[in-house]
Amino acid sequence: MGISQPQNLRTPPAARPRPYGVRVSLLPGDPFGKLVGPEWHRMHWYLTAAERDAALSEMSRRHLYSRSGDKPALVFEKVENLVESRGI
Q1: Which of 6, 23, 25, 79 is least enclosed by beta carbons within 10 angstroms?
Q2: Strand, helix or coil at 47?
Q3: What pLDDT band is residue 88 in, cutting at 50, 70 and 90?
Q4: Is residue 21 situated within a structural domain?
Q5: Considering the domain boundaries, does residue 2 fall inside one?
């Protein structure tokens, strides 16, 4: 899907390939899945593995205002587009 209003982006889309990614999905049985569907996921792409790893650690960390019993309801997975990163 394309971007309908590219002027509203904070930064323009990069022309360089972004082969390293993080797939964010819901835990099985999460009630939010009833709203967005059980197969919902979101991909975030980065230029380097180091950028991806830094973003992954920031996304998955325990937030400052989390309650003591709160547990993350999202699953974070590292992914790599081998065609863009290694030409395979």
Answers
A1: 6
A2: coil
A3: low
A4: yes
A5: no
In a domain, 57, yes or no: yes
Mean pLDDT value of segment 56-71: 82
Map tokens 């593995």 to a residue: 49
CA dist 21 and 58 (Å) reads 14
Using alpha carbons, select from 6, 38, 44 the residue that is nearest to residue 24.
Answer: 44
Count up the domains in the chain and report the number. Answer: 1
Extended strands (E) in the chain: 20-26, 41-46, 74-80
Asked if residue 79 lies in contact with residue 23, where contact means CB atoms within 8 angstroms, the answer is: yes
Buried b (16+ CB within 10 A) or exposed e, 4-24: eeeeeeeeeeeeeebbbbbeb
Domain that holds residue 54: 17-61+72-83
Tell me the per-residue pLDDT of 17-53, one tens digit each, with 9 for 90 and over.
889 999 999 998 888 889 999 889 999 999 999 999 9
Predicted model pTM: 0.72
